Amino acid sequence: xRLGRLAVALCGxxxxxxxxxxxxxxxxxxxxxxxxxxxxxxxxxxxxxVDGGPVVIELAPDFAPRAVANILRLARSxxxxxxxxxxxxxxxxxxxxxxxxEDPHPSKDEHPRPLGDAAVxxxxxxxxxxxxxxxxxxxxxxxxxxxVGLSDGFPIAGTAGRVGLAHCYGMVGVGRDTAPDxxxxxxxxxxxxQSPRALDGNVTLVGRVVWGMERLSSLKRGTGPLGFYTxxxxxxxxxxxxxxxxxxxxxxxxxxxxxxxSASYRxxxxxxxxxxxxxxxxxxxxxxxxxxxxxxxxAS
Length: 300
Hints:
Elements: H1 5-12, H2 25-30, E1 37-39, E2 45-50, E3 53-59, H3 65-77, E4 84-89, E5 93-97, H4 99-102, E6 128-129, E7 136-137, E8 147-151, E9 154-158, E10 162-165, E11 171-174, E12 188-191, E13 205-211, H5 213-217, E14 236-237, E15 242-243, E16 255-258, H6 263-273, E17 296-298
Antiparallel strand pairs: 1-16, 2-3, 2-15, 3-13, 4-5, 4-14, 5-12, 6-10, 7-8, 8-9, 9-10, 11-12, 11-13, 16-17
């Protein structure tokens, strides 16, 4: 079972026995009925290979349809097959791309991979109408948005009428230059530190890491400006990158995420807001958007 970072930390702090009237987070998940778990669609997933193991990203076409379509086009063309992690900035992001495209001084024999029929530039996709979304609103105030919650497992923030994805731990975004339309999905990053919510509305977010996050967050930090690796020998391959539905069934992970519109998830929300257990001396009765976990497990 992969839980959110906070949930894992809390389980690790367990000392006194859980009060009988207060179910533990694990007990909530263990008793969640099958109908409260949704299958993560392989056709909306990206599989990376990092350090010999899988990293799975669930994409969010409902929030960034153009960017997701471009990323799928790049993946299917083999663009990412030689991609590598080129930047790991401590407490911030890990970023992967075509190393030749990122190298300011490429060798004469090194050329960036062609984009093929993928778009070179795309407008940012940072919000959309809230109508048509199943949203589990969070009750507590947020410093960045008047409305926060979860929709289909993704953290969202915005107003009553328009919402967008939020920069929480594990979220995946499109790298760009100064021009707002300069990102096309050929370089991507995942948040590995404290949630940089100031980026909300400034970068297109396209999904969330739902499996193998530890393979990204534990990579060696870069020592160059912004955490870029200064020696190409430090680059960490992430390819081949495949769309989940193109991965052979035997190698595919059958992943299930707890539905964030379910009664079980509302129980998780109540647990996170407290009270939790006798270990806690003080419970603030408040939970931040990026503190809410997304429980994901392999189907049994």
